[in-house]
Structures are given as structure tokens and as C-alpha cells.
Amino acid sequence: MNLIARNSFRLRALPYHLSSLNSLRHQATCATTATPSFPCVDAHAARESKILASSFHRYSQIGIPASSSDSGPEPPYARPNPLSYNTYHHQYPLDLTYGSTLPSFDIAYETWGTLSPSHDNVILLHTGLSASSHAASTELNPTEGWWEKFIGPGRALDTNQFFIICTNVLGGCYGSTGPSSIDPEGQRYATRFPILSIFDMVQAQFKLLDHLGVQKLYASVGSSMGGMQSLAAGWLFPDRVGKIVSISGTARSSPGSIAMRHAQRSVLMADPNWNNGFYYDQLPPHTGMKLARQIATITYRSGPEWDQRFGRKLREPKDGQSPSPSRSPTLCPDFLIESYLDHQGEQFCLKYDANSLLYISKAMDLFDLTLPALQELAMTPTTHAPPSPSTSSSRQSPVPSKSHPPPLHYAPHFPELAAGLEPLKLIPILVLGVQSDILFPVEQQRELVDALRMAGSTQVSYFELGGVWGHDTFLLDVLNVGGAVRGFLS
Question: How far apart are CA 161 and CA 240, in angstroms?
Fold first, then answer.
């Protein structure tokens, strides 16, 4: 084709190209001028309007029973008059780890079983971060508790044999004194509440035990944060704790766990409604709480479980949406796992106090039973026995576990952890770890066991569980967790 012919062809094709270009421009203009639709954002805005219209009933009503429609993680509690739990009021000041003092405090608690005449059959059950004292159903509260299948006749915590006490921790919002409580001046503590430690929570629990006339626990049992508390109870009061059970816990919060909790606190505190913690008479930081819960949920379960449970399945289409798998993707949740996280966040965001989440998660981060950390806080066990010399010569080499070989190389802090754990060396201890746990990885439980053995303990039992439930295994695996606990306590 010569030059003239080529130019003639181009001129004849020009109208077609111009038509196509105009069509593309028209499509682009339509795409850019159309108003985007985000149902998930609209749903969140509607939720906020509903909360705003409720006149903040949750935070403005004190001493009035909450509505039965309030579907919290546990049945709603009315403060300060308990409906389905007991309250111990400690009228004297409590000195706290980091230099502050609580002028007085309340501890909410529930019990199961029968207290023996000699008060020697008591098990203190410690909770995770956001749980209440309602670990199992009672006559006053027949709804299932967070450890329902582990408490009762013939179960892991056998009520035919033991008297079980579970408390809402100091700093919580289900009956015990925390940031949402009223201070001596008649105002909410909010973020004027003092920084707490795991040791402070345990000290408050033992004030309750003193009140109940319990001189020595048969056992201190806990999972997750409760696993930290169970160790802290034995460390603070080695003469008053007969046995220790620590499930998916640790003796020293790791950087990975701290990072995960820091991310939760960051998104919560970035919510403008948090208002530096003073939100009780206005819109609560529900957006920050929802996002924090989504992050937490990711750490509570495991990827393999979600692969089995959700895979890459798409969520069910809503009314008016095409059920076709070829439907167009959106920026709102498309996958079932996204909908699951969204639901978990929504369910939690108004059921737990945001400030309690901040304070208690921080207490978890601060937990460290290495000797230098304890010395820095001037912590000493309360014991009638003379302290044993804390020297390297008094420690033993770790005894190999049936579940894992002894480590070839210890972390730099390992000898310091062994030294810090010496007050526990005479107490029989059961440690349970879960291989799929990403929040408290099994390396932390293995390290705890090895450090206890190096500290001189010869009564440490360790079991490492499989399964895909991750950190939440302690809530779900009744057969293996419950069996190990029942056998150890028996």
C-alpha cells in the first residue's frame, strides 16, 4: 500500500475511531460521576444513629437493671446492686504496683459447688481479658457461662469435690471496680483510673479470699490472661496456693503479643469518640472497639481453622443482589471471612467498656516474671518460709519434656526468668500449650516449663495440644483441655 492509499484508509477509519473514543469517554464519565454505594458504610452510619438515639442508656443509668434486650457477652449487670453475682466491697486502700492507690474497690464473683467445713477445697478460676465472673450457669443466672462445659459434677472443675470461685477482674466492667466505676468524688474514673498490673488483680482476689475465710487455695486455675494470673497468684502467695494450672498463658509477655494488643489500643484510641477516655455521657467509641475486636479475633483463632470453616467462600447475597458467583466485587465485605470478622466486631463493640479493654490489655503487656523486672518493681512474695538463695548454683538443668526436647540455645532472658520463677518451685504446676496458638505460641509455654525446671521445680506437667482452634482451644476442646485439668486436679 503506497503512502496516498494508507492516508486515504486512515481518513476513512477516522470517524469510527472518534466514535469509539467518544463512547469510552462517555463510559468513563458515567463511571466517575455515578455516586458510589457502600452498604457497609451505610450500615455503620445507621448503627451510630441508633446508638445516638438511645440516649446512651448503657452509660447514663447507674444502679438500674439493664434491659433484657441488651445482648452482652454475659447477661447485663446492674451496678452497684448485683442481680446474679455477689459483690465484695473492700473499704480499705489497695496499694498498686505502679505507685498509685485505690481508696476502695468492689470485686464481683460467682461460686459453684460446696465449701468444705475446713475451707480447703477452693479453686480460684481466673478469666481472660474480657470475661465476666459468669463462668457457668447458676440458679440466679441459668444462661451458659464462658466455661460452661468445664464446671459441674464430674467435669474438669468437679463441683462434687471443689468449691469454685470466679471473679470479674479489677479493672473490668462487669461488677468489679474499673474505669467505668464511680470514684469517691461521684464521677466516672475514666482514664483517671490508675494503671494496673496482673499482680494488682490477684491482690484484690486474695482480699476476697480473706473475706471468705479461705487461707489456702486447692488450686489456682486460668487460661490466657488467666494463665498469667494463676502464675502470679502462686508467685505472690506460694504458701496459699496448692496447685497451679496455666493454659495458653505465659510468664513473660512477648513482643509479638504486645504488638497485637498495641494495634487494638491504637485503633480504639484513634476513634474521636474515645475522647481521651471521657465518653460515658456521650457517643461511645464503637468504631474503635469494633476494629479492635476484629484484630483480636484474628489472634484468637488460626488460619487452618478458617480455611476449613470459610475457605474462599463468598458471603450470602443480600436482598436485591445477584446470587451469581460472577457478581462484581465491592470494597465492602465479599468473602465470608470478612463478614465473620465484621459480625464479631459489631457484637462486641458495645458489650465491653473501651477503657477496661485499654487498661487490662496493658496489664497483660506489662506482665514479666523475670528477676530483673520483679526487682525493678520491688516485688516480693508473701511467704512464711525463708527465701531460698537466688544463685545459679541452686538451679538445675531443665529436665527434658515428653512433649518437646530441651532447647539447644536459650534466649538471653531465660536464666533471668528461671531466677524469677523460684518462688513457684515447690508448687505442682500444669502447663498446657496449643500448637496452633498465634497469640500465646507454644514456645512461650515450653519456655515456662523449662524455666520452672531450671528453677528447681520437679512437679511440672506439660501437655501440648494439636487442633486448629488456635488460642480459643481452651474454650472449645473439652476432651483434651478438660481431661488434662481434671486428671491433674485429682
Answer: 19
The Cα–Cα gap between 279 and 354 comes to: 9
Of the candidates 437, 450, 472, 477, the residue annotated as catalytic is 437
Among residues 120, 223, 299, which one has the least CA distance to residue 484?
Answer: 223
In the set 133, 180, 181, 224, the catalytic residue is: 224
Using an 8 Å Cβ cutoff, are 216 and 234 in contact? no
pLDDT band at 243 (very low <50, low <70, confident <90, very high): very high
- Confirm if 433 and 442 have CB atoms less than 8 A apart: yes
Residue 1 corresponds to which cell in the numbers above? 500500500
List pLDDT tens digits, range 460-488. 999 999 999 999 999 999 999 999 999 99
Average pLDDT over residues 317-326: 62
Cα 445 vs. chain centroid, distance in angstroms? 17
- SS3 state of residue 38: coil
C-alpha angle with apex 281: 279 to 282, nearest 5 degrees? 65
CA dist., res. 268 & res. 270, Å (int): 5
Which residues, including other chains, have CB under 8 Å from residue 263's CB and lie 6 or more apart? Answer: 295
Q: Which three cell numbers stand for residue 238?
A: 506460694
Q: How far apart are CA 176 and CA 355, in angstroms?
A: 14
User: Over the chain, what is the mean pLDDT?
Assistant: 85
Cα separations (Å) of 364 from 129, 200, 209, 261, 390?
A: 9, 12, 23, 9, 26
Q: Is 471 a catalytic residue?
A: yes
d(CA 174, CA 201) in angstroms, rounded, equals 14
How many CB atoms sit inside 10 A of residue 34's CB?
8
Mean pLDDT in residue range 188-207: 98
At what angle are helices 354-366 and 198-212 packed, to 10 degrees?
100
Distance CA 101, CA 404 (A): 43
In this predicted model, what pLDDT tens digit does every residue of 383-409 receive, in sequence order?
765 444 444 444 455 554 455 555 667
pLDDT confidence of residue 347: 86
Block residue for cell numbers 513473660: 252
% residues pLDDT > 90 (the chain): 68
Does residue 224 have an active-site annotation?
yes
Does 16 score more than 80 pLDDT? no
Catalytic residue (choose from 230, 471, 472, 477): 471
**Are 129 and 360 in contact, with CB atoms under 8 Å apart?**
yes
Residue with grid cell 496516498, as numbered in its chain: 4
Catalytic, 437? Answer: yes
- Say what the pTM is: 0.85
